[in-house]
Amino acid sequence: MECCDTVAMVSRVLFVEDDSKIRQVISASLTDEGFDVVEAPTGEYATSEVDLESLDLAIIDLRLPGINGIDVVRNLRQRTTIPLVILTAHGDSSDVVTGLEAGADDFLNKPIAAKELVARLRAILRRTTDGATPDPAVATSVGSVRIDSSRYEATVADARLHLTRTEFGVLRALVHASPATLSRQALLEAVWGYDYLGDSRLVDMQIYRLRQKLESHGLKEKLLTVRGVGFRLIP
Amino acid sequence: MITFTLRSKTVFMGTAVAALLSLAASLSTFFLSREYLLRQRDEVAVTQVRAAARLAVSTLTRSEDPLEVLLSGAQLLPGARAALYQDGSWLVSGVGLATEDIPSDLIRSLESGSAGRQRVSIRDESAVVVGFPIQTTSDTWFIGVMSLQELERTLSVLRGALAIGGLLAIVGGGSVGWWLSRRVMEPLHDISSTAEQISGGDLTKRAKEPREPDLARIAQTFNEMTTSLRARIDREARFGAVVSHELRSPLTVIKGAAELIAAKRDELPTRAQLGSDLLGERVHQFERILNDLIEMSRYQSGGVQPVLEELSVKSLIETLCHRNGLDPRIIEVEDALVVVDVRRFQQVFENLHRNAELYAGGLEAIRSEVQGEFIALHFDDAGSGIPKGDYEYIFEPFVRGNQHSAVPGSGLGLSITAEHVRIMGGAIIVGRSPEGGARFTIRLRRGESSE
Q1: Which of A124, A156, B77, B378 could form a disulfide linkage to B367, CB 3.0–4.6 angstroms apart?
Q2: Do B307 and A110 touch (CB under 8 A)?
Q3: B256 and A114: CB-CB below 8 Å?
Q4: Looking at beta carbons, which pairs linking B418-424 to residues 24 or more positions away fall under 8 Å?
Q5: Which among A21, A32, A110 has the least Cβ separation from residue B263?
Q6: Are residues B28 and B146 in the same domain?
Q7: What is the pLDDT of residue A196?
């Protein structure tokens, strides 16, 4: 099975959802598919009781009583680099943009189907944990930017660039492609595992964040937007 | 038939009323002035000729010479002409006066011994002729002919002035009509353009309230109506949103439970397998209807923002055909960039594909045609076409063909498709394919880079 070939270890997933029945049924499906699920009934529980170190990914429902989903995303994003997936009422709603701005890497619409969820999680995990064996044929640096795929680390002139897994994935794809331009679709495929048709807002948000981090290391106009085409990292 | 706008009618009425009033005023002014001036002139003429006649009389007592008599009188009438009739013969002083010019009525009056006055036209020149019988001898008359040319000139200037005044009044009347109509029509135009925007779906628009209390009332009433309409639509949209949101949670559980059962399908007895299959199928259908309702309620409540990007239409169609298990040989699409919201385009494609599958034996061809700044995508199905009478209604919500009532669906698919295409800046129409099936054509904007 695909899961066991590509995700060798059991992936540990945090599922933040206030509806106990939904939690129960989705957890059961995920467990059946080989995931280790940590259930969190509230935002408070997710942010204070869960050991983030052991997690590979988190799924957060945005409508939560008490601390809302956006704040949970913001809190987790400050403390971990793992992919954060939000559950929204509608792909069109402002929730998506707010969630992505708060630090989420991807979103899923409700009602979620276990099958779709599993496929989505596998794609994300595959793209964010497959860096252990770097291909020696592809570039690992562009100018002063250097990436180390085995440790998910990037440096600018030997100074560490603090990136989330998704941001690292975007940077890695851009470094590998440089000096060529990568389209949004190519980035969606390389980083999110969408086969071509994904939401371009996902890419735009990560590019925005990555650009800010590069700029804070003095690299202005390093990551260019090529209008109507995509993005390019210049040496 | 030509219909005139209220505004042109008001301008016309203003002009017509101004024209009538100024015509009446000009004519009466002209004729009254003319009458008054003529009467004045007549009186002056009578006084002058009387004085001249008296002088002639006094000369007559001293001299027998008629010429001397005539000239003594005429000297009191500078610039005028004079005539003397004595014992059957005429003596005339001044150029351009013949004895035939003396009107016969005046002569008859003088013959009867009384003075007379008459206006005449002597060789296109109007004049007043005044005659006095000189009493000392019979049949001797002194006649003065005073020209009215000066007066005619004055009257002609007056006529010109009145005509200019009249024209100005007409223009003024028209302008006032135009200004008044503008004043009245502007708020009404504002209300009607606001109404158009509102009917186009923007319920946040309000008509400007004009300063005139009467017109302000119309705008206020209109705005109140819009506000209550919006509140009502919002309420309905909220109801739809709340209901669909509330249905989502139990549906997630039902769907998850159905999937858990389906995952162990092989371990179930045959009857339970049937139950699991039916459950899975109906849950899927329920989810689709619920999604359609949510999508529609979002469009109804307004404010939907598309996420637009430029993509290759060929790759897009190829990917979607592949995803939906369609034969790639049906694709006859050229390579061009198209402006789309990927999620919506995908839904448009899937709706048209599903419709074709359910009602018309599937899609037979997907063709493209560049039309200026747009690209038309034709989705041609293998059915026998849609009756022309249905073209108009087919995109309305909850419209489904009678023969299709057994096919599951919300009846919202095509209206959501139309809304999706519209929000992407395009349009959808239905027609007939060259093979005789139904043809759904979506027209989308081409990407800038493709021009």
Answers
A1: B378
A2: no
A3: yes
A4: B419/B295, B419/B296, B419/B299, B419/B304, B420/B341, B420/B344, B420/B345, B420/B347, B420/B348, B421/B348, B423/B299, B423/B304, B423/B306, B423/B341, B423/B344, B424/B306, B424/B308, B424/B339, B424/B340, B424/B341, B424/B344, B424/B345
A5: A32
A6: yes
A7: 55
Q: What pLDDT shows up at residue B158?
A: 92
Q: How confident is the model at residue B231 (pLDDT cuts 50, 70, 90)?
A: confident
Which CATH fold would you assign to the domain A2-129?
Rossmann fold (3.40.50)
Instruction: Using CA coordinates, name the residue in chain A closest to B280.
Output: A113
Contacts with B414 (C-beta within 8 Å, 6 or more apart), sequence order? B351, B355, B394, B395, B399
B300 within 8 A of B236, measured Cβ to Cβ: yes
Q: Is A49 on the interface with B (CB under 8 A)?
A: no
Mean pLDDT on B305-324: 86
Q: Which of A26, A90, A201 sits opposite B294 (nearest CB)?
A: A90
Q: Is residue B132 part of a domain?
A: yes
Q: Are strands B125-133 and B140-147 parallel, antiparallel or unpaired?
A: antiparallel
Do B256 and A228 make contact, defined as CB atoms within 8 angstroms? no
Look up the CATH number of the domain holding residue B427: 3.30.565.10
Chain A nearest C-alpha distance from B185 (Å): 41
Per CATH, the number for A141-233 is 1.10.10.10
Nearest CA in chain A to B256: A25
pTM over 0.90: no
Q: Closest Cα to residue A108, out of A2, A207, A194, A41? A: A194
Q: How far is B365 from chain A (nearest CA, A)?
A: 22
pLDDT at A2: 41
- Residue type present at position B448: E
Buried b / exposed e along B229-254 (16+ C-beta atoms within 10 A): ebeeeeeebeebbeebbebbbebbbb
Distance from CA of B194 to the nearest CA of A (A): 28
Q: How far apart are CA B200 and CA A133, in angstroms?
A: 57
- Pick from B77, B85, B81: which is nearest to B44 by CA? B77
- Tell me what ipTM this predicted complex has: 0.78
Angle between helices B66-74 and B6-62 (to 10 degrees): 140
Nearest one of B112, B111, B106 to B49, comparing CA atoms = B106
Same domain, yes or no: B293 and B327 = no
Could you give the maximum distance between any two Cα atoms of chain A, in Å? 52
